[in-house]
Design a protein that fits this description.
- The structure is a single chain.
- By secondary structure, the protein is α/β, with parallel strands linked by helices.
- It has one domain: Carbonic anhydrase (Beta-carbonic Anhydrase, Chain A, 3-Layer(aba) Sandwich).
- The protein has ten helices and five strands.
- Strands 2-1-3-4-5 form a five-stranded mixed beta sheet, with helices on both faces.
- Helix 7 crosses helix 8, helix 8 crosses helix 9 and helix 9 crosses helix 10.
- The two termini are about 25 Å apart.
- The structure holds zinc ion (ZN).
Length: about 250
């Protein structure tokens, strides 16, 4: 199967936007080369098919490629939306088998199912400002991966993230908002205050925390049942650009 064999395949230098775009094109090429079963009768990711697809039966890498293919459909305005109707709702009501778990930001402009052209029962999503891996989120994502069987664990940041910007400014904030900052400041320091780079660093940091802080997740990765990935959603274009996630397992 013409899929990338190396988990680090879609991993550009985070500081090199051209490299990120090249990597994304490579991923999309891989996705479009997948079996017809995955994306449509012709096998091309951007050709809609009414067929119901059980992504939970694909490999972790195939599931990751399916996410990027869904984002490509979203960006090119060729959505399938096959899982957003009442028949799908009824089909998954008794039991869920999502294929990807997410740690995303709470930002209203990043609706994860829409961004990846998925629907009911496809994604197990946790969202919190700054997409930080709190202990509660880790517990939820352990449930999504170990119990529900998600094959991808994806950390999704986004451009102009308010939580990252606030953590960089270090201004006084009311209530418990500042409780988020301690999780994000290592990324701000690594990026030397550059917000765009800090968003990338934060995605990477939270993904590493997920893998390192959770023996459950680390074991799933080690045994090839789960792939940890990450990316940055561009608020202006809708494109999700992959971020390199080091293997810490
Ligand atoms: Zn945000």
């Amino acid at each position: 199967m013409p899929l990338p064999a190396d988990p680090s395949f879609p991993v550009p230098s985070p500081s090199d936007s051209e490299s990120i775009l090249a990597s994304r094109r490579a991923w999309l090429a891989a996705a479009s080369a997948m079996p017809a079963l995955a994306f449509g009768a012709s096998g091309f990711a951007d050709e809609p098919s009414p067929a119901e697809i059980d992504l939970s039966k694909l490999s972790p890498k195939e599931c990751l490629a399916a996410l990027y293919a869904g984002n490509q459909r979203f960006v090119s305005n060729r959505l399938l939306e096959t899982h957003r109707r009442m028949d799908r709702l009824r089909a998954v009501a008794p039991r869920q088998t999502p294929f990807a778990a997410f740690l995303g930001c709470a930002d209203s402009r990043v609706p994860i199912e829409i961004v990846f052209d998925q629907g009911f029962g496809d994604l197990f999503v946790t969202r919190i400002a700054g997409n930080i891996a709190s202990s509660e989120n880790i517990g939820s994502l352990e449930f999504g991966t170990l119990v529900l069987g998600c094959k991808v664990l994806y950390v999704l940041g986004h451009t102009s993230c308010g939580a990252v910007i606030a953590a960089a400014k270090r201004d006084a904030v009311p209530g418990q908002i500042s409780g988020l900052f301690q999780h994000i400041r290592p990324a701000v320091r690594a990026a030397k205050g550059d917000v765009a780079q800090a968003v990338i660093e934060n995605v990477r940091n939270q993904a590493v925390i997920l893998a390192e802080a959770s023996p459950v997740i680390a074991e799933l990765v080690r045994t090839g049942k789960l792939v940890v990935a990450g990316g940055v959603y561009d608020l202006a274009t809708g494109v999700v650009n992959p971020v390199e996630i080091p293997d810490v397992t």
